[in-house]
Recover the amino acids of this structure.
């Protein structure tokens, strides 16, 4: 188990202090926000090279939408994602977390010829085929994140992400499993993890309350057992709220999860 946390929940006046605090609390990694990360690249490389804590992933940070009804918005998203994949490789991260679309569909419903979700899936596969080639070339991973139905109408379950990855057929496109979203969408988290198996390249941790693990009713033990069974050896990053003082709650959370 390699634990990480998103940079925004970690105490510290600067990146160096955040790395130092994570190391002190017992974490192995940090997940960084994508917005503005190009300008921070040299600093990140310098700080991480002097710490046992490593960068796990870049979370979002691109403009546009891969499933927009506007071509220029789709192309902007593709351009930004390709750029961030290169940054991810440079800073030693696993890859970039990507959500294809938030909210309702933007493409037209072309029934009876083709429903909107079918059209979206076909378009996304074409787009990800291009993105996957870039990811392969730079040595990074595009991590598709399934979200719950209240945040997106598209890509809610791990198996849907696996279907897309199979169609794209690129080692540069995998999925990320988020315990908060799985708690809503998956009938059994452990079963979903086992079925997704080697397509899972990153994990987000949050309880059913969207707070730190231990502040809700999510069954982490069965999920962790499933991850152990499939041989998962990558990072699991906290993406959640902290009810108390981070300097107290974060080390407690590490002990709870281990």
């Amino acid at each position: 188990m390699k634990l990480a946390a998103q940079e925004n929940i970690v105490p510290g006046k600067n990146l160096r202090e955040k790395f130092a605090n994570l190391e002190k609390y017992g974490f192995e990694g940090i997940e960084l926000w994508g917005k503005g990360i190009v300008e921070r690249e040299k600093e990140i490389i310098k700080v991480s090279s002097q710490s046992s804590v490593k960068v796990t992933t870049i979370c979002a940070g691109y403009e546009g939408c891969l499933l927009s009804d506007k071509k220029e918005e789709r192309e902007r998203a593709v351009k930004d994602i390709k750029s961030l994949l290169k940054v991810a490789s440079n800073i030693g991260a696993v890859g970039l977390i990507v959500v294809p679309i938030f909210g309702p569909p933007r493409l037209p419903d072309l029934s009876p010829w083709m429903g909107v979700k079918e059209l979206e899936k076909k378009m996304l596969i074409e787009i990800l085929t291009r993105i996957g080639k870039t990811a392969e070339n730079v040595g990074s991973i595009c991590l598709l994140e399934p979200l719950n139905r209240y945040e997106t109408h598209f890509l809610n379950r791990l198996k849907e992400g696996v279907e897309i990855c199979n169609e794209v057929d690129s080692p540069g496109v995998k999925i990320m499993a988020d315990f908060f979203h799985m708690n809503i969408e998956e009938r059994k988290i452990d079963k979903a993890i086992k079925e997704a198996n080697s397509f899972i390249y990153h994990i987000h941790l949050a309880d059913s309350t969207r707070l730190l693990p231990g502040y809700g009713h999510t069954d982490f033990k069965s999920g962790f057992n499933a991850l152990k069974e499939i041989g998962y050896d990558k990072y699991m990053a906290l993406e959640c709220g902290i009810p108390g003082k981070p300097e107290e709650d974060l080390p407690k959370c590490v002990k709870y999860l281990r």
In short: The longest helix spans residues 116-138. The first strand starts at residue 2 and ends at 6. The two ends are 8 Å apart (CA to CA). The chain has a mean pLDDT of 97.
